[in-house]
Amino acid sequence: MRRTLIFLVPFFLWAPTLSGDRVFLQNGDRWSGVVLGMQQGVLRLDTEFVGETKIPWNVVEEMTLENPLQIRLRDGQVLFGTLTTTNQDWEIHSADAGVERVGKNAIQSIGPPPSTPSGSLSETGFFDFWNGSLDAGLSTSRGNAETLTVNVGLRAARTTQSDKLSFYLTSLRADNKTGGRTVTTANTLRTGTRYEKNVARRLFTFGFADFEFDEFQQLDLRSVLGGGLGVQIKRSSRTRFDWFGGASFSRELFSTGLTRRSAEALAGEELRHQFSSAILLAERLVFYPNLSGLGEYRVTFDSSLTTKLNSWLSWNIQLSDRFLSNPTGGAKRNDLLLTTGISLTFGEELSFVPPTPLPEVLQQLQ
Is CATH 2.40.160 the classification given to domain 121-365? Predict the structure, then answer.
């Protein structure tokens, strides 16, 4: 009996490392079982003989996930797949995004996916998966001259792994009071919505509606409806770069009484790059050649640099430019907005990558 126990003891000590997910610690210990998740620097592992065990994330040297889980990176990207460690590289293997190589410290959390993580907007609750921010800025002066500048911004997006619905709003108002007379020096509002739907691994369609008011371009309302097709040129844990093109219809109402309607083509690019876990750069440039009046065109450019101060507070700088080749009433062709302020953030964005296999004819786009 004693000899049997002597044989079984090392067997049970070694048993946790024989199957399932595997965790290797810096001190040489090896564990096996089912990884339940990792939150706030603590890895939870369910083993057959010991039960649930909590392991500090900073002592984990290597890990292998045989069962796919949701892996959230510090740059906000979320992937669903397995994980292996090879030569200090942590490799996330997912059916939709392929293989992503990241550092251990780039992993923020591990856990089960939310309900229907890859479902479309029609397959999940409308209030699921929202993220965004509310920006506000204020500057004022009092004395010989009284000035007041207020800027407000709102961005919200509902993202699943197959589609994305987003809204935006940017407003700037600046007044200058001198000698008892108030002069408005800036008054503009830009808002809109956009829907994107993946049709293949790197291919997506989109539709949008944009609206704009600009007092100093004598523009009461510009409404633009359009859509098209886009290609994800680069997609990684830090960078996403897209090219897209399509067509739109523009209707412009000016305070001079002029109304213009025109069909437009559109071509553009969009970039999102995470410099670090705290700093994000985003920009979009779109060129709209007028198909109704050849030689006329519009250009829109929007960019932002966001620095996270904590999980819900950020500092944000935004640059928004609108160029119109044929303004009315002697107005300048270019209007540039530069705003900065505090941003309140909510939610976290899912990775916008679909499981749809790429058709053979489009393999060259990979």
Answer: yes
Measured between alpha carbons, how far is 213 from 177 in angstroms, rounded to an integer? 23
Cα distances (Å, whole numbers) of residue 95 to 30, 37, 193, 261: 28, 20, 30, 45
Give the residues across from 100 on adjacent strands: 92
pTM assigned to the model: 0.64
Q: Where are the domains of the chain?
A: 2-111, 121-365
- Per-residue pLDDT of the chain (366 residues), as tens digits, is 445 444 444 444 444 434 578 888 888 888 888 888 888 788 888 887 777 888 888 888 888 888 888 888 776 677 788 888 876 678 888 766 677 888 888 888 888 765 444 444 444 566 667 888 888 888 888 777 788 888 888 888 887 767 889 999 988 888 888 777 888 888 899 999 999 998 877 899 999 999 999 988 888 999 999 999 999 898 776 788 999 999 999 999 998 889 999 999 999 999 988 887 788 899 999 999 999 888 899 999 999 998 988 878 888 888 889 898 988 877 888 888 888 888 887 765 544 444 434 444 444 444
